[in-house]
Design a protein that fits this description.
The protein is α/β, with parallel strands linked by helices. Helix content is 30%, strand content 18%. The chain has one domain: Rossmann fold (3-Layer(aba) Sandwich), CATH 3.40.50.1360. It has 7 helices and 9 strands; from the N terminus they run βαβαββααβββαβαβα. The strands form 2 sheets. The protein has a 6-stranded parallel sheet. Strands 4-7-6 form a 3-stranded antiparallel sheet. Strand 2 (36-40), helix 2 and strand 3 form a beta-alpha-beta unit. Helix 1 crosses helix 2 (47-54). The structure holds 6-phosphogluconic acid.
């Protein structure tokens, strides 16, 4: 499938380049709408970008609104928590107002109730406007999953809900994820993919005809806005 790929020597180079583009999108969003609403990726790859961002000065943190693209249904102090990863890499080091940070509430009694609560949070934040993030950051799993949208998941065909609880073939299985409904409204989307363990899936995505790419959840992310793939040499080959 057609991909706007930017290839860098390593994760550090990828992360610096992605930060530069994030800051460009951020200033554009603040100029046009007075705020920058971003959905953050989980996993390991984006931690370097978040850490670099934490050192950026000056930064209008009062205009930045942090959301998550997905979360594992674990306490926020759990080592597997995407919130914990972002708190350690970014939030703990910057003066962002706590009211601007919207973690997925994994203290709810069930993943379904967490998804419903986050759906309400998104709808309240965006109001009557479409829930269109200024930027969505996404990672890529070796079998083509992104956020917590895994191959074969019924949520891939969701047409109404913004947030869903899913059972993932990964540890931990209970997850909450933005659905393609939200992802495909994004004004800008960055995929951050690093490492030779991602080379096979990147090659498959690049070579896949559009007609069969849908087997890979990442290929279902087709927003009106630009999608940029930030890759390192390990992932690109
Ligand atoms: C998660 C992520 C997931 C991640 C990919 C890549 O909660 O795990 O949202 O979609 O982006 O699995 O993970 P790595 O960056 O750790 O390779």
């Amino acid at each position: 499938m057609e991909m706007d790929t930017r290839v860098f020597a390593d994760l550090d180079g990828l992360s610096h380049a992605a930060l530069n583009e994030l800051l460009r999108v951020m200033h554009e969003a603040i100029d046009q709408r007075g705020r920058f609403a971003i959905a953050l990726a989980g996993g390991r790859t984006p931690a370097r970008l978040y850490s670099l961002w934490s050192h950026e000065q000056p930064m209008p943190w009062d205009r930045v609104q942090l959301f998550w693209g997905d979360e594992r249904f674990v306490p926020h102090n759990d080592l597997l928590s995407n919130f914990r990863m972002v708190r350690e890499a970014l939030i703990a080091h910057v003066p962002i107002p706590p009211a601007n940070v919207y973690p997925i509430p994994t203290d709810q009694p069930s993943p379904e109730q967490a998804a419903q609560a986050y759906e309400s949070t998104l709808r309240a934040f965006f109001g009557a406007a479409a829930p269109a993030f200024d930027l969505v950051l996404l990672g890529l799993g070796p079998e083509g999953h992104t956020a917590s949208l895994f191959p074969g998941s019924p949520v891939l065909d969701e047409k109404k809900q913004l947030v869903a609880a899913v059972k993932a073939p990964a540890n931990p299985p209970n997850r909450i994820t933005l659905t393609p409904v939200v992802l495909n409204l994004a004004r800008n989307t960055f995929f951050l993919v690093s490492g030779t363990d991602k080379r096979a899936i990147i090659t498959a995505l690049r070579q896949e005809p559009p007609t069969t790419a849908d087997q890979f959840p990442a290929a279902r992310v087709r927003p009106a806005g630009p999608v940029v793939w930030f890759l390192d040499r390990g992932a690109y080959g």
